[in-house]
Amino acid sequence: MPSVPPEGEPAPSDGSLPAPALDGAAERPLGFYVHVPFCATRCGYCDFNTYTAAELGGAGAPPGASRDSYASAADVETRFAATVLGAAARPVSTVFFGGGTPTLLPPDHLVDMLEQIRSSFGLVDGAEVTTESNPDSVDLADLERLREGGINRISFGMQSSVSHVLQVLDRTHDPERLPRVVEWARQAGFEQVSLDLIYGTPGESLADWAGSLDAALSCRPDHISAYALIVEDGTGLARRVRRGEVATPDDDEMADKYVMADEVLGSAGLGWYELSNWARDEAARCRHNLLYWRGGDWWGVGPGAHSHVGGVRWWNVRHPAAYAERLAAGVSPAQAREVLDDETRRVERILLETRLVDGLAVDVLDDAGRSWLPDLVDNGLVELLASSGGAAPDDRVVLTLKGRMLADAVVRDLVP
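^ that's the sequence the OP posted. Answer follows.
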């Protein structure tokens, strides 16, 4: 969750949504994102809405702002969501516990929050339920309890296998612990295991990155996310870069690392399905994130969490104490919202679906966007392919490898 939300308009205190947002809701999948805003330490590159215990007042943290009381506040919002959606409430397809580090909470607290979602909405058969975790925040007993409680997918924040790279990122785990934790997850019965990697850390060589990819693959994950490091303003890493203590890699090096990732992961049987994500097969793709990229409905629980239902997007107040206070007072924790018009939704569809291996339907583009397609094809940035069962031979725009590295530029042409 980025640190600066959009402006928006005031959100109603009762959380009510415009009637058109609920039209046809029963036909749309519903996901839940549960933000757990706690971290053991603050990583220098991260600008997400997260807090260490000391930043929240330690043992004196107000209700809802401590790890001990957080699940109760989140459960109140889940019940609130069921009331707001009313007849549009339906069984949930995906649940994602993110953060922060969700597994800093006791496993029973995560299971309790999942049970509240199940009680208030139900879960579809085969629902995907993911939690993020740091390698040093769980043991075998924790993983067994999480799996027993219904969480069936886990994503470990590996980031790198190289100690000096982890040190620049302020990551505290021992890279040698990761294989053991992945094995524990398998032993506990997790159906899907994902690893998160970051490339482009100051001081990371191509050999370092190759070593991290090999180390990740040696764990035989079902899914790998590989994200380019973005040095966000206001972070500790940004201050170090500004002072000249560390240097960021140039664009050519970043491109080389992306190509390396795609080649190495592809050779190991993981195919790309989104710009930064690779999976062993279609079943291993993260369905929750696909729901985002395809413009689905999701309710975000927690301080700073974002939600989207039927073209209405809103975001909660950011501080855990303010979040809990609003819920205790019986009012929506939403800080503000946006009601998206048809053109905004069309543009956002282009921004999101262009990222996917299935590409974007040509008919989503306006005449100006379509006029760029011949140049984009000639420059090797996109291909025009037939969709599954499509009537036209070239009804989808799909990025090539070159286009994936220049995706932002491609989108600027498609949305001139």
